[in-house]
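Incident review: delayed structure delivery

Summary: a single-chain prediction request sat in the queue longer than the usual turnaround. Root cause was a stuck worker, restarted by the on-call engineer. No data loss occurred. The affected request and its eventual output are reproduced below so the record is complete for anyone auditing the incident later.

Affected input:
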Amino acid sequence: MKVLVPVKRVIDYNVKPRVKADGTGVDLANVKMSMNPFDEIAVEEAIRLREKGAATEVIAVSIGEQKAQETLRTALAMGADRAILVVTDEMPEPLAVAKILKAIVDEEQPGLVILGKQAIDDDSNQVGQMLAALTERPQGTFASKIEIDGDSVKVTREVDGGLETVSLKSPAIVTTDLRLNEPRYASLPNIMKAKSKPMAQKTAADYGVDVTPRLTVVKVEEPAKRSAGVKVADVDELIGKLKVLGVVE
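Output delivered after worker restart:
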């Protein structure tokens, strides 16, 4: 069984994003970039499935500029077998990403697609669900545990009320949550081996997908800073201040 793992290049989670001076977006100049943390979890899970014998090949896919090769090389160093880079200068929206992935799924015919549940740069949480709809495959989102049993995939999901377990018939789509696993560090020998692993380069046009943005960002601004708290001497003063603020009557 092939496992397809889409990965995204995002601002490193340790870096505090800066808004551009003109408010048109986030400043990416000279900012450390890395693989989306949820996608790292997806890569790790795919590799573990291969190590257990449940999968035969792990294919990493990224959609973005040429620099996304670095992210794919990280996935290859972790243990992915080969990679596909879909080069585009546009920042594709979730629907365009899902359409490209759908075309790759049709071409590669993986038994399982594992994605991070969301990317930390936009927190859209849409691609996995859109891909499931486009491919008409069953989906298990927010997975904290994945088990392969023959032609079925058992997914334990994190939901508001606790945990829910669903059984999906393969081929299926799964999105990962934080508690699924702890991604491994790529060793130096594997980093060197990753340089020789195959990486195909495609464009969105090769898959017949238009990545022209359909949304326009009107303005980006940082959240308002919290004002300092105020100490009160007693309950009467607290109630008085709450009345001034209009919180209580």
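Verification: The CA atoms of residues 45 and 63 lie 20 Å apart.
Action items: add queue-age alerting; document worker restart procedure.
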